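Report of the visiting student (M.T.), summer placement. My assignment was to run the structure pipeline on a short list of targets and document each run. The first record concerns PHD-type domain-containing protein.
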Amino acid sequence: MRMDEVSKNGEKAEIFTEMQAMMKSAQKGRKPNAERKPTRIGSEYQATNIPPAGIFSGNETDTLKENSLKSDLYYEQVWDPKRAAASGKADLVHMTVLHNRKEAGMVHFHRCDYTIPGFYTDLAEVPPLDGTDWSKEEKNLFNESIWSYRKDIGKVAKHTGKSINNCLAYYYGSFKQTADYARLKSVCSIEEKQTKDGYADYCAVCDDGGELLCCDGCKNAYHLGCLDPPLLEIPADDWYCVECVMNKNFNCSDPKRKKQRRSRGGT
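After the run finished, the structure tokens were exported:
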């Protein structure tokens, strides 16, 4: 090894040692980490028992019922990656099936035992997912339903007789491009504002948000620490700000507000 290489390696070692010392020094002055919440692992958060899946013909009804009793639910398998890869046709199907029939096409390909003959003929009878085959009456019914139930797609699907996936695809792919969607969005925004309690979402002293204490005599809100004198905790009884106390502005207090939350949490 040459002398210049030894010198360079020595410089690198010194730099590395200095960096380690700086890191140790920084860690000494660092505050201890806050207590971490437990990781969400376990039966309360993940499925621990996955029921079996399979395809059953008419003469296997008894087996299906028997397994259903054992596992409560019995699901139909809709895709087998090993069989799909072995067929060598999965990529062809994926590239040639239109986007609005892609999901149904893959399921149908599985039901056809991953074979091409007759696949495209049968798939042509499957309705597209995005609602491009809907009649004018069906589209009008969807519009009426989305206005009646706002954005509750579950109720819209039930009212229109369509699947939730079908309604979602039509909503995002077609309805959001219409003037009706813009009007619906505006109406929902107004309704959302009207349902709020009317209190300010910022502190009347520092103009900042966060967890605020709401006055029971006006619409002002305050940080506990911004009050003079500061408060350590939210009062259990009705609380009035200094302005309301000095102006004796108790007549604007609404009894209904007593049932509301005593503070507003910040994000």
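Residues 56-61, 68-73, 249-267 have pLDDT under 50 and may be disordered. Residues 136-195 form one domain. I thank the supervising group for their guidance throughout the placement.
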